[in-house]
Each structure stands twice: as structure tokens, then as C-alpha cells.
Amino acid sequence: EVWMQDTRVPLDVVWIRDGRVTGVVTLQPCSTDPCPREASPGVVDAILEAAAGTFADVAAGAAVDVIRSTS
Q: Which pTM does this prediction carry?
């Protein structure tokens, strides 16, 4: 689950599993308690967040290269 408690700007959230996008959603800032929660569309192994609109043209099934840093 993802929520936007005290986040000040809208964000795109991309859920990723096995190098493929499983879902994309744009979330709005929230200052209430509790904030609504957005559940992932299934089991995921990574989440990517960026400014709202960044992933507007990305659809489920798109390939993603996830590079994990050890530093």
C-alpha cells in the first residue's frame, strides 16, 4: 500500500514485478489523518515514484530495467 500523508506534491506511483509494470496511478497530496491508501495491483518487488505526469504514457506490461545499487 502507498499513501500520501504529508506529501506536498502529486506523485505517479509505478508498481513493478519481474521487470514489468503491473500498474501506474497518480496520487494526490493528503493532509488528513488517516489518508486514503492505494493498494498495489498484486505482488510487486519494486515501487517507483516520480512527479505526477511522468509516467502518463506508461501502461501495465511495459518493460522496466531495475538497477539496484549497493552503495
A: 0.84
